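Make up an example, fold above all:
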Amino acid sequence: MAAAAAAAEVLSRVADVEIDGGGVFKYVLVRVRAAGGPGKDVVRGHGWAEYHADIYEQTARELAQQGLGCECLGGGRLSHRPEERKIHVYGYSVGFGRADHSVTTEKLKAKYPDYEITWADEGY
């Protein structure tokens, strides 16, 4: 039981959402797992990434340093317009496929409760 509690504690310290402060950029939806423990889905999106895999690989490295494993559930794009308090989730990753944008949208709504957050399967 103590191991599961410790795993849950480490997992709770992983931010649900880490995205750039504005712009249009790629994102990935990643399932994070503690060894033998529960998992949770997190959103990572950054403008510096040429490929979705760049974001996933950096995220996997950071999580591994905390003793956590992960898998990429898919990707897409985010259009983050902070001046309008809007985020639009759309598109897909050629390498990882389309993320479940409804899951991503719920994560973003929790992080940005005063934003209008929309999603669509159209677009790249």
